[in-house]
Amino acid sequence: MDKSIKQTDRPPYGIIAVLMIGAFIAFLNNTLLNIALPSIMEDLNIEAATVQWLTTGFMLVNGILIPTTAYLIQKYSVRKLFLAAMILFTLGTVIAGAAHIFPILLAGRMLQAAGSAIMMPLLMNVMLVSFPIEKRGTAMGIFGLILMAAPAIGPTLSGWIIEHYYWRMLFHFVTPIAFAVLLIGFFLLKDKKEKVDLRLDIFSLVLSSVGFGGILYGFSSAGSKGWDSPHVYLTAVIGFISLIWFILRQLKQEKPMLNFTIYKYPMFALSSAITMFMNMAMFSGMLLIPIYVQTIRGISPFDAGLMMLPGALAMAIMSPITGKLFDKFGGRLLAIVGLTITTATTYIFSTLTQETTYNFIMILHAVRMFGMSMVMMPVSTNGLNQLPTRFYPHGTAMNNTLNQVAGAIGTALLVTVMSNRTESQATILGEEAMKGLTGQPTEAAMAQMQQEIMMKAMLDGINYSFFVATFISCVALALAFFIKRAKQEEELPTGNQVAPKVAAES
To answer: Which sign does the torsion angle of CA 86, 87, 89, 91 carry?
Structure first.
């Protein structure tokens, strides 16, 4: 770890501030693009399955690069990693903003993802080593407030820009800010790194890339191609085999690229499981609510973004409050209360109708995000608190990687559930409608009837997906009852491995 970044009475607030600004820009640009996808499809004349690669490709690059960040954080200084991340992100933003064909836009997007993949684990690691355990909840809460502000303003800002300008302005808007952050980091970050005798195992990098990349690609493609497509099951199977091989190889190495022995620490293992299920459930709202309000209800992108704003603001405002509560009460109580709220609101979302009011959806979504704000950061922080300091890079890299994998699996699962339910329900409703016909309807009447059937079938598919997400949330709630306040473990060397003492107080 860098000599300039240790647990002291005065944490390196300057370094943390610069890192947070960089992470905020990366998060903001990610959420800006979601509402712009229909405009990009129209302008570049591409299909939905193609434009989806702007999201899928971003997740793939994150899934491939994040596992390497544990090695990078141990090998290089914060300054070098931050500047490399911002150069990649800025270059990607410039390329994407100038793109007039989809391959160039995708290339720019993937460069952005490469920078973002380095930024988040780097910031998390600096936060962990800069604050003692008793103050870490508050620090992580402020960190969450800043990062949650990005998704809070992202959709609304994106909707306003698209309605008044064009989608490339989303990148042109970010470019000067990214340049400014890069210059600030260049002049302000001065930390140095002692020379570390650590080499990257190339074969492990290949296995990790094929493993996490294959799983992410397979599950991300399932929504559009179907589970029976070779693109889905072959890449997923190859990914799982490579991942198992990667894990076995890491367990045998003295200095692994990603240390899986951290799962011997029970609170970290439990926190990983809970956050994975939470990410899967969270994607139900991020994915299904926009489809419902724009496709079934015909609400404009800007109004759809405004609808999501109170929920994102609730999550952002609650983040520092939750951090202080975590320092005082621990993660168990917060997780149980938060997951109870999340589960209840997810179930209510499974009862949407074509008459559900705009205000009701907005309030329900805000309450759901309020519940989630009490879970994600406290549970993750509690798990990381149990790890010895030298395992922080591995813990943050593991958490960020698994969040990407869980997001891809959750998205694929819920899209597939929605699509299959919509298709089967459309067939049933169509047969019932044909039985009730008297006489020969006109073509206009048939078209109107088919449109009404598809709207009802899609609504039923969305509701059923939320119902499945309710069960996923219930699993996380059940696991939350086993949380205990974690204490940092002492390292007990046993050969090349580390055997943790089971030290978690009630």
So the answer is: positive
Task: Find the domain containing 313 and state its range.
Answer: 263-506
- Residue 337's SS3 state is helix
How many angstroms separate the Cα of 478 from the Cα of each of 94, 276, 339, 340? 46, 14, 9, 10
CA distance readout (Å), 101 to 33, 172, 394 = 16, 17, 38
- Yes or no: say if 486 and 500 are a contact pair by the CB < 8 Å rule: no
Q: Do residues 63 and 111 share a domain?
A: yes
Q: How many angstroms separate the CA atoms of 165 and 231, rounded?
A: 37
| Domain annotation covers residue 214 | yes
Q: Does residue 258 belong to any structural domain of this protein?
A: no
Q: Is 257 within the bounds of a domain?
A: no
Which residue positions in the chain have pLDDT lower than 50? Answer: 1-5, 7-8, 492-506
For residue 359, the tally of other CB atoms under 10 A from its CB is: 9
| pTM for the full predicted model | 0.76
Q: How far is CA 297 from CA 300, 397, 459, in A?
A: 9, 40, 10
Cα of 164 vs its chain's centroid, Å: 29
How far is Cα 157 from Cα 167, in angstroms, rounded to an integer? 12
Helices 37-44 & 102-130, crossing angle to 10 degrees? Answer: 150
Q: How far apart are alpha carbons 486 and 223 in whole angstroms?
A: 38
What is the per-residue pLDDT for 333? 92
Are 184 and 14 contacting, i.e. CB atoms less than 8 angstroms apart?
no
In which residue are the tokens 């206009």 written? 444
Q: Could you report the per-residue pLDDT of 143-193, keeping only the tens digit for each?
A: 777 666 676 677 777 778 877 888 888 889 889 989 988 898 888 877 666
What number of H helices and E strands is found in the chain?
Answer: 18, 4
Residue 168 three-state SS: coil
- The encoded tokens of residue 491 equal 């390292």
90 touches 42 (CB < 8 A) = no
- Domain CATH code at residue 475: 1.20.1250.20
Residues 216 and 157 reside in one and the same domain: no
How many angstroms separate the CA atoms of 151 and 312, rounded? 6
- Give long-range contacts, CB 8 A cutoff, 24+ apart: 35-42: 35/155, 35/158, 35/159, 35/162, 35/290, 35/301, 35/304, 35/305, 36/158, 36/162, 36/167, 36/170, 38/301, 39/162, 39/166, 39/167, 40/105, 40/167
Q: What is the pLDDT of residue 498?
A: 43
CB atoms within 10 A of CB 213: 21
